[in-house]
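Expect chain and fold; thus:
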Amino acid sequence: ADGEKALKIDDLEEKGYGRKESCRYCDTNIPRMADLACGNWGLPSDKMGKATFVEVITDKGEEIFQNAVDTGYIEFEQASDKAIELRDKIDKVMKDLAEKWHKRLFEQIDGLSDPERLAFYLDALRSCIGCGACRKVCPVCACGDSAKCLIEGDSNYKIPLFLMVRLLHLMDSCIGCGRCEDVCPAGIPLTLIHRRFAERMQNKLGYVPGIDLYTPPYFEAELREDS
């Protein structure tokens, strides 16, 4: 159309525009672990901006959707086979793109020797000013005032110990949302570092946080203090 120009997302992100890094390598594009998955992938071009593609995933989702229809909040039409095929095709393309970005972004750590990798972490984390913003916005950090990863103002360590505690604390629960990195005033690549630790732990445990309602590993473990 006149006055409009389309650009490939690949080209935009190569130049540093578009999605933030944590979104670029996320391969969960359609939240099929939810009751309903809503978006625009699969919509015909004439319905873009006017309609939403809704996948009904669960019985609860069906109930919610049907209630919205019955009360007149929404109108719907059944998606065509072509629309469903297009939605799945876009999902596959974006998963392939996520895999490419994952390899590219994590190679800067994975490609290092052990001493070089340690130096990378030290160099990145020593920029921390101890504001605690990353802990405040983290959706899976729920310790509150009893948190063990509090900042000690008189610490003389090269990097705050609270960062190291957080790395260990979140290895099994980090979802890679990127909020910690968004609010970091020092520009530390926190999401990249957290995910580099978390992926190894989560793969070993066979558990991906935020995907299902199963009890996480060790969640019900009882800690014992030796006298």
